[in-house]
Amino acid sequence: MSHKLAISTALAATLALGVLSDAEAAERRAKKEKCYGISPAGQNDCSNLAGTHSCAGQSTVDNDPGEWRLVTKGLCKSQGGYTRKEAREIIKQLKKAK
Predict the structure, then answer these.
(1) What are the counts of helices (DSSP H) followed by strands (DSSP E) for the chain?
(2) 38: how many CB neighbours lie within 10 A of its CB?
(3) Which secondary-structure segment (H or E) carries 27?
(4) Helix/strand/coil (H, E, C) string of the chain?
(5) pLDDT (tens digit, 9 = 90+) per residue, 7-42?
(6) Is 82 in contact with 33 (CB distance < 8 Å)?
(7) What confidence score (pLDDT) does residue 30 get?
(8) pLDDT at residue number 25
(9) DSSP character at residue 78
């Protein structure tokens, strides 16, 4: 096997692994869903519904209905969580109560 062929083969294998990893990551994300109201303080996955922050780990209250975490699809309800629509309704009701 020539030196160029060996390098080309190694490069092709490396690129293929990268593509497979991206595909695998996309598949794993497809098996997840956002679950609102189950994040302990400081353990949310990203921005909140109120728009007061846009980063993970910035929640300040346990189980805030506006904060979310990614969970395996179908497990949100069993963890006491809400869909985005349900979370928005809860927040709306809390604002009315004030």
Answers:
(1) 2, 2
(2) 21
(3) helix 3-30
(4) CCHHHHHHHHHHHHHHHHHHHHHHHHHHHHCEEEEECCCCCCCCCCCCCCCCCCCCCCCCCCCCCCCEEEEECCCCHHHCCECHHHHHHHHHHHHHHC
(5) 666 656 655 666 556 666 666 667 999 999 999 999
(6) no
(7) 74
(8) 65
(9) G
Q: Residue 13: enclosing H or E segment and its boundaries?
A: helix 3-30
Question: Which structure tokens are listed for 73?
Answer: 């699809």
Q: Which two tokens stand for residue 95?
A: 């604002």
pLDDT exceeds 70 at position 77: yes
Q: How many whole angstroms separate alpha carbon 13 and alpha carbon 81? A: 42
Residue-level pLDDT at 9: 66
Q: How many residues does the chain have?
A: 98
Predicted TM-score (pTM) of the model is 0.68
